[in-house]
Amino acid sequence: xxxxxxxxxxxxxxxxxxxxxxxxxxxxxxxxxxxxxxxxxxxxxxxxxxxxxxxxxxxxxxxxxxxxxxxxxxxxxxxxxxxxxxxxxxxxxxxxxxxxxxxx
Length: 104
Hints:
The chain is an alpha+beta fold. The protein has 3 helices and 5 strands, in the order αβββαβαβ.
């Protein structure tokens, strides 16, 4: 799947769009997607791939859009002790860290 994600990111970049890439860098316990799973996001919020099976994607997309604007990478933490994780639906008993960066 990561080939499809990177291919789509390249298509968006070549079309002149701003693009960000989100990658699962750490998991613990019950995590919906393994380390290395990726999500590509364009400036309009369109995305391809998955970092969570859907439960945190909305929050990751929002952070990616901000990263495209300010150019600053982010390391996002979601877990059962994190109030935001419950808000975005990550109540599966695990933890996931997602690194988000703007592609240059």
